[in-house]
Design a protein that fits this description.
The complex is a heterodimer of chains A (401) and B (288). Chain A has 401 residues and is an alpha/beta fold. Chain A has 15 helices and 14 strands. Classes of the chains: A alpha/beta (401), B mainly alpha (288).
Chain lengths: 401, 288
C-alpha cells in the first residue's frame, strides 16, 4: 500500500511538472509569436474612403519590415478594427484592441470626434495613439505624451486656407462647418487671417451632419452675399451642399478639403455641380526620398497625405520600439522623439532605420508626409499643402505650397 | 422676413413629404405586426441601391427606377420578415424589434459588401431652382413631392377600397376579431411587410435623389423617419404624413431663431411636446 501511495510533495511536484509542460508551449509561443500593433481606421462611414488606403499603406510597411527580419526578433502583425467614423463604435474597438489584443499602439483614427473619444482610453491605458485628426483641441488634451499626429492642426490649416482663398481673389468668404471639434477654431482662425490678406469672413454657421437636405443652411449663407464659400465638412454633407449650391444658382468660388470632395464624389455628382471647386489637403513631401520609396512600395504614382502619414506612423512606431527595445505604450512615448528628430543620421524608411539602429547609430526619421518633427504636445511643426481645382469632373493640380 | 419664413416652410414641406413615404411603411408594419421594425433603415438603403442599378446600370429613367427600388426592397422585406423576424415574434415585441436592429446592420453590410462604401449618385440631370418673388423651389423637389403624394394617395386608396387593404385595417384594429371573421393574419403580415418595406425602398431612393447614396443612407434617415411616425401616432397612416410634415417644418422653422447646429434637437423637442400632450401622437391610434 505504502509503495503506491503518492505523498503530498510528489503530488505537488507532479502538478508542477504537468503545469510546466502545459505552460511551456505558451511561453515558447509568446516568445516566438508575432508582435501585435493596433490599427483603428474608418473602414466605413464618412472616412471610409481614406481608412482602407491608410491601412494598405501600413500593411505595406509591415510586410517590408517582416521581410527584413521583423522587429525585436518577431514578425509584426496588425490587429485591425473599424472605427466606423463613429466615436461610440471607435471606443468599443479601442477597448478591444487594448484589453483583448494588448497592443502598445493604436494607429489610424481619422475623424476629430473619434480621436477625442479614443484618446482618453489610450492614455489611461498607457497606449500610444497616432492620428490624422486636425482639431486643435486634440493635442491640448491631457494625453501625457501618449499621442502624436502627423496632420497639421486646425490653427495651421485654417491659416493656410485663408491665405489661399485670398490669393485667388476671394473677398467675401462665408464658412459652413459641420458640427465637429474643428469647427469653431477654424472659423475663428479664418476671421483672424483673412483680413490680414485683404479679405474678410462675412459669416459662418455650424450645421448638423446626416441631414438629407441643407437648403435652408445654403439660403442662410447666400443671404450674406458671399463671393466665396468655405465648405468645412465631410463628403456626405459637402456633396449635398454642392448640389444645393448649384440649384441655388451660386456661381462664386468654393473650397473644401480633399477628403470631402474625393474622386469618387466627383463621379457621383454631375460635372456642372463640381466645376471650378477648389480642394486642399496637407501635402505629402513629394520631393523626399521617403515619398519615392512609398510610391514604389504602394505601387501607385501619387500617394496622398493620408497614405504617407500612415506610412510614417508605422515606420515611427517600429523604429521607436527598436530604439527602446520594448513594445509598450510608455516606451513609445519616451522614445519617439529620439528617432524622429535631432542630429542623428537621416533615414527614410523603417527598414533602413532598423538597420542603422542595429549598427548602434542615432537616427532621424524623415517621413513621406514630412519631416515628422513633433512639438511637446505632439503636433508636427510644419507642413506643405496641396491645392487642386475641378475641371470637367477631374482634379487639376494647381500647386504645393 | 416673410419670404424667409415661407422659404423655410416650403423646405420643411419638401423634406417632410419625402420622410413621410418610409414613415408610412414603418407605421403600417407597426399597426399590423405590432413592433417597430428598425430593419426599415436597411430596406431604404436597398431601395436606393436597387434604384441606382436600374438607373445607372440599366439606364432606366426616374419612374421605372423608383418602381424597381420599391420592388427590390419589398421582396427583401418579405423574405427577411418571413425567414428572420417571424421566428422572433413568439418571443415578444421587444425581442423582435431588437432582432430587426440586428437584421438591419447585417443587411447594411451586405449592401456594403456588394457596392462598397463610396458615395454614389443617380444618372439624372440636375436643374437650377425656379424662383418666385425671392422664393426658390427645385424642379427635382417638385417631382419628388408629386411622387410622394401619388404614392401616399395610392396607399390610401389601397387601404380603403381594396379587399386586402380592408383586411389589413381589420387586423390592425383587432387581430382576434379579424381572425374570427376568417381573415388570414399570416397573409396580411406578408402583404404589409412587402408594401411597408417597398415604401421604405422607394423613400430611400427619393432621399438619394436629392443627395447621394451610400450604405448608411437609410441609417442616417431612420431617426427622422421614426420621429415622424411617432409624432403622427405610431400605427396611423395619416398620422405618419402629419408627423413627417410636423418634424420637417418644425426643424426648418427653428432656423429662424436657432443655429442649424440644433436642428434635430428641435425635431425631438417637438416629439416630447406632442407626446406630453398627446401620448399616442397627433392622430394616434392603432388602426390603419
Amino acid at each position: 500500500m505504502s509503495g503506491n501511495t503518492i505523498s503530498r510533495r510528489r503530488a505537488l511536484q507532479g502538478i508542477a511538472a504537468v503545469a510546466g509542460s502545459v505552460a511551456a508551449p505558451a511561453i515558447v509561443r509568446a516568445q516566438s509569436g508575432t508582435l501585435q500593433l493596433g490599427v483603428l481606421t474608418p473602414l466605413t462611414g464618412a472616412g471610409g474612403f481614406d481608412g482602407p488606403r491608410m491601412l494598405k499603406a501600413m500593411q505595406a510597411v509591415a510586410a517590408e519590415v517582416n521581410e527584413a527580419g521583423g522587429l525585436l526578433g518577431r514578425q509584426i502583425s496588425l490587429i485591425v478594427e473599424d472605427d466606423q467614423t463613429n466615436p461610440e463604435a471607435a471606443v468599443r474597438a479601442a477597448r478591444k484592441l487594448i484589453d483583448v489584443s494588448k497592443v502598445p499602439v493604436i494607429m489610424g483614427t481619422w475623424a476629430s470626434a473619434v480621436t477625442s473619444a479614443v484618446a482618453p482610453v489610450c492614455w489611461e491605458s498607457k497606449t500610444f495613439l497616432t492620428t490624422v485628426s486636425g482639431a486643435d483641441s486634440i493635442t491640448l488634451l491631457p494625453h501625457q505624451g501618449y499621442l502624436i499626429r502627423t496632420q497639421p492642426n486646425n490653427h495651421l490649416q485654417a491659416a493656410k486656407h485663408a491665405e489661399f482663398m485670398a490669393s485667388i481673389g476671394a473677398k467675401r468668404v462665408f464658412c459652413l462647418s459641420i458640427q465637429a471639434p474643428f469647427s469653431v477654431p477654424t472659423q475663428k482662425r479664418l476671421a483672424e487671417v483673412l483680413p490680414q490678406k485683404g479679405s474678410e469672413l462675412i459669416g459662418s454657421l455650424i450645421y448638423e451632419k446626416d441631414k438629407t437636405t441643407y437648403r435652408s443652411e445654403i439660403d442662410q449663407a447666400l443671404r450674406a452675399k458671399p463671393d466665396f464659400l468655405y465648405l468645412n465638412g465631410y463628403a456626405p454633407d459637402v456633396t449635398v451642399m454642392m448640389r444645393d449650391l448649384y440649384r441655388a444658382g451660386f456661381d462664386g468660388g468654393r473650397l473644401t478639403q480633399s477628403y470631402a470632395l474625393t474622386s469618387k464624389v466627383l463621379e457621383s455628382l454631375p460635372p456642372e455641380v463640381t466645376e471650378g471647386a477648389y480642394t486642399t489637403q496637407p501635402s505629402a513631401d513629394v520631393d523626399s526620398p521617403a515619398f519615392a520609396r512609398a510610391v514604389k512600395r504602394l505601387g501607385i504614382d501619387d500617394p496622398d497625405s493620408y497614405e504617407t502619414q500612415a506610412t510614417d506612423w508605422i515606420s515611427l512606431v517600429c523604429l521607436t520600439i527598436a530604439k527602446a527595445k520594448e513594445a509598450t505604450g510608455t516606451a513609445l512615448r519616451e522614445n519617439v522623439r529620439k528617432i524622429s528628430q535631432g542630429s542623428g543620421m537621416k533615414v527614410y524608411t523603417a527598414v533602413d532605420g532598423l538597420k542603422a539602429l542595429a549598427e548602434g547609430k542615432e537616427i532621424n526619421y524623415e517621413g513621406a508626409s514630412g519631416p515628422c518633427d513633433f512639438t511637446d504636445i505632439g503636433d508636427i511643426i510644419d507642413c506643405k499643402f496641396r491645392y487642386q481645382r475641378v475641371a470637367a469632373a477631374k482634379f487639376k493640380f494647381l500647386k504645393i505650397a | 422676413m416673410v419670404t424667409e419664413v415661407l422659404q423655410l416652410i416650403i423646405n420643411g414641406i419638401m423634406a417632410g413629404t419625402i420622410l413621410a413615404v418610409p414613415a408610412i411603411g414603418l407605421t403600417a408594419i407597426f399597426a399590423v405586426l405590432r413592433f417597430a421594425n428598425f430593419a426599415l433603415a436597411s430596406h431604404a438603403t436597398i431601395g436606393a441601391f436597387a434604384g441606382l442599378v436600374a438607373n445607372v446600370n440599366f439606364g432606366l429613367p426616374l419612374v421605372p427606377a423608383l418602381a424597381f427600388a420599391f420592388l427590390a426592397a419589398a421582396i427583401a422585406g418579405l423574405v427577411t420578415d418571413e425567414f428572420v423576424l417571424k421566428p422572433f415574434r413568439a418571443a415578444g415585441f421587444i425581442t423582435t424589434a431588437i432582432g430587426s436592429i440586428a437584421l438591419t446592420i447585417a443587411l447594411e453590410n451586405v449592401v456594403r459588401f456588394i457596392f462598397g462604401n463610396e458615395l454614389r449618385g443617380y444618372d439624372l440631370p440636375i436643374q437650377r431652382d425656379w424662383r418666385f418673388e425671392g422664393i426658390r423651389i427645385g424642379p427635382q423637389q417638385v417631382e419628388n413631392l408629386a411622387i410622394a403624394v401619388a404614392v401616399m394617395a395610392a396607399v390610401f386608396l389601397f387601404l380603403t377600397l381594396t379587399r386586402t387593404g380592408k383586411a389589413m385595417r381589420a387586423v390592425a384594429d383587432n387581430p382576434m376579431l379579424a381572425n374570427i371573421k376568417g381573415i388570414n393574419a399570416e397573409m396580411v403580415a406578408r402583404i404589409v411587410s412587402f408594401v411597408g418595406m417597398g415604401l421604405a425602398g422607394l423613400g430611400g431612393m427619393l432621399i438619394g435623389l436629392d443627395t447621394t447614396i451610400d450604405p448608411l443612407t437609410g441609417f442616417r434617415s431612420m431617426l427622422s423617419i421614426f420621429a415622424a411616425a411617432v409624432v403622427g401616432g405610431l400605427g396611423s397612416i395619416p398620422g405618419a404624413v402629419v408627423g413627417a410634415l410636423t418634424v420637417g417644418v418644425g426643424e426648418e422653422l427653428s432656423l429662424l431663431f436657432l443655429s442649424p447646429n440644433y436642428r434635430s434637437a428641435v425635431g425631438f423637442f417637438t416629439i416630447l411636446l406632442v407626446l406630453i400632450f398627446r401620448p399616442r401622437g397627433i392622430l394616434g391610434q392603432r388602426a390603419l
